């Protein structure tokens, strides 16, 4: 344990600038390689090989793609509203990249000028920042769809905004139990709370994935919807809308929408890692656990190689979540629009609200029993979550949340009354039936 | 509600999104990890062509390098798409030869009638398909170019089963 040496203003600004440039560059390179990874993984899932001709294992493919996109013709539809048409790709790419500013990606690095935290901006409202900037992501989609002057694009943009509004609520609410547990909205502190320390304020010694299993599930689902990826890619919906909001875009402007989408995926994967997978924590090893308290006290011994190792751990975890994203994309078919809205408003919202209440009550009970913060605290929550996950899966499995195209069980002579009593979502069904009757 | 809509009742297990999604994820994971990929790395690995594949034409030549064609005019006559251009001539020994013999490979439908009809087995189709060109003119093969082709000629029938039985 030691005192953190304060950086002088000059070094603070310099190092912050270096971090901004480094994080942005790395993020862009990772995005470029995620396009390759996506194509390769999708190819492997479909028993193909994918792009493997440019460079070893196709590793230079992103460069070839970039050159191609830059030298392609930029089209400008006659109906397009020029300023907004040009602004939309920028707005698509911006939120996803600046969201990365509050994500801690490694243990603090000791330098001759003081301890440098591996986060671009350790702001005390990091949590609100994430939610606020995350929602701005839809502006690019909506604006691009509207400014294109095309029906398909407009529909894509509208769907994008409707979807964002629906799932933004669940996304924010699914993080409330996390805040209840962590007691802090700073991302580095949320990471510290998932680690084990011999000194300092008590922590949970467990990744929040376990005590907040159901919450992480909700967050992940909402994250899928936020990034407009399958099974939530209704704004694109090739089958119906050509490619939705970026139908009219070509060359690098189109590419910027894609970069924005991929950057968003990586950012959401990083958020999942920070919130639920212990951030840069290396599992089963306490040596990497370094915590900087708000008063400047440093717990643990920061070294440069620990920073490198934790950075690697963070990258691996984020990478695995990204692969999960890709894997889901190439497995699950797109939801129908009513299924999407049902899932968002009739299931996720209620379920997350109930989940917050249950977790709050359980926390109250645990505190009432006098169990201190730590492994047992987390274990009790884990058991509760296992039970909740069972209930959740049982409810989902009844086929009532996402239903097929078939009508509810009402035969020729069955009226709305019998429909209401025959299924567990009778209220919803009979409402739909009533509409038809009128 | 229209009364004649048939509503199919499905068991919960069939309509469950969770089970179906989990099953699908399993299927894709199995294929993701399956090392046996179906892609054929085309320029490096090529198809093994059957002996009766009909592709680029080839003109048979005598030992001294002259084309075997006697300019009888049967192949331009039989050609259903009129892609063969033949101008006959006679040499000092009174033997007919093709002064101009051109095949438009673009126009050709590779039916193989020219090879079947040829009385001296001069014009053949070949077991060959890679003939990309930069200009349309290059697709019209003249006699010299037809004689230079080196690929196998198409077998008109399977030698082990001549009657195609």
Can you describe what's shown?
The complex is a heterodimer of chains A (438) and B (165). Chain A has 15 helices and five strands. Chain A is mainly alpha-helical and 438 residues long. Chain A has one domain (2-336). In chain A, β4 and β5 (297-299) form a beta hairpin. Chain B has a domain at 55-148: Alpha-Beta Plaits. The N and C termini of chain B lie far apart (61 Å).
Brief descriptors of the model:
heterodimer; A: 438 residues; mainly alpha; two-stranded antiparallel ribbon; 15 helices; 62% helix; globular; B: 165 residues; alpha+beta; Alpha-Beta Plaits; 5 helices; elongated
Let me know the largest β-sheet of chain B. Answer: 3 strands, antiparallel
Low-confidence stretches of chain A: 411-438
Distance from first to last alpha carbon of chain A: 72 Å
Q: Looking at the structure, what is the overall shape of chain B? A: elongated
Structural class of chain B: alpha+beta
Strand order of the largest sheet of chain B: 2-3-5
Q: CATH topology of the domain at 55-148 in chain B, anyone?
A: Alpha-Beta Plaits
Count of helices of chain B?
5
State the CATH class of the domain at 55-148 in chain B.
Answer: Alpha Beta
Assembly type: heterodimer
Percent strand of chain B equals 15-25%
Distance between the termini of chain B: 61 Å
State the domain count of chain A.
1
Q: What is the level-2 CATH architecture name of the domain at 55-148 in chain B? A: 2-Layer Sandwich
Following the backbone from N to C, one meets helices and strands of chain A in this order, namely EHHHEEHHHHHHHEEHHHHH
Number of DSSP E strands of chain B:
5
Spatial order of the strands in the main sheet of chain A? 1-5-4
Task: Output the radius of gyration of chain B.
Answer: 27 Å
The chain-level structural class of chain A is mainly alpha
Q: How is the topology of this model organized?
A:
The complex is a heterodimer of chains A (438) and B (165).
Chain A: E1 2-3, H1 9-45, H2 61-71, H3 82-98, E2 106-111, E3 114-118, H4 126-147, H5 151-174, H6 176-182, H7 187-193, H8 213-226, H9 238-241, H10 251-276, E4 291-292, E5 297-299, H11 304-329, H12 337-369, H13 375-397, H14 416-422, H15 426-437
Antiparallel strand pairs in A: 1-5, 2-3, 4-5
Chain B: H1 12-15, H2 17-33, E1 55-59, H3 74-78, E2 84-90, E3 96-104, H4 113-117, E4 123-126, E5 140-141, H5 143-148
Antiparallel strand pairs in B: 1-4, 2-3, 3-5
